[in-house]
Specification:
Two copies of one chain form a homodimer. By secondary structure, chain A is mainly α. Chain A contains five helices and two strands; from the N terminus they run H-H-H-H-E-E-H. A two-stranded antiparallel ribbon of chain A has the order 1-2. In chain A, a hairpin with a 5-residue loop joins strand 1 and strand 2. Chain A is globular and about 40 Å long. The interface between A and B is medium-sized, with 32 and 32 residues. The structure holds a DNA duplex (30 and 30 nucleotides).
Chain lengths: 103, 103
DNA sequence: TCAATAAGTCAGAAAAATATGACTACTACA
DNA sequence: TGTAGTAGTCATATTTTTCTGACTTATTGA
């Protein structure tokens, strides 16, 4: 056999990519909050102690481009933006649940 | 109820800690190689293109302190050191297997 | 029209992660 | 005794990530 696992010859694994999409200072926490309900930019800034605009903006953009969160413009007043957990994001939840049991 | 998930009020999750223990430039790859069999310092240096001593040393130390790898002195000639996947490390494998199916 | 809320961007500074190259310590073999 | 293999450490440099503070744009309510 040429390979014994799901990793390719470049040394990349799907799981590594996913790991990367969720790593960083704020992304895990944003993911966790989004799992409880839609999150918003300014609210995150207040909820996540020590966080700054720039980092939150970058984290949201990356979670969105990784298709873990979805950006939704809510046409109510006040007009605002919500980030929702995508289907892919939801599919990660049981995995994390399992991880939590492994100390 | 006071909380709906396994996270505490400090904003820390067990899963986040685990994520952190496996994140970084080399740790995921070392973990993956260790899943196939014992790994060694100099061998990793050759296997992981672009890696340097320092980073490998740090990564191994952190994986060891996170109890994902175990350091084993092999009293054969030449005397050398092997890093083995621990029980905790092994328990992560099926989780990663699952992650790989989630794109 | 003015002030507030919401969601950002941008340039530059600071902090953290990684990389470089020289050096160490031990074992083994000729 | 000298050279090679194995597994590192250490100080310093470079790169990447994160932070700071000022600024922007659109909507809303008084």
């Amino acid at each position: 056999m040429t390979t014994t696992n799901a990793c390719n010859t470049d040394g990349n694994c799907p799981a590594e990519g996913l790991l990367k999409q969720l790593s960083g200072k704020w992304k895990p926490q944003i993911f966790r909050l989004a799992a409880e309900g839609p999150v918003r930019f300014n609210a995150l800034l207040r909820q996540l102690e020590g966080a700054n605009k720039q980092s939150i903006a970058v984290a949201l953009r990356e979670l969105e481009s990784g298709e873990i969160l979805e950006k939704v413009v809510v046409r109510e007043k006040p007009l605002h933006i919500e980030y929702h957990l995508s289907e892919k994001g939801k599919s990660l939840l049981p995995v994390f649940k399992t991880l939590e049991t492994l100390l």
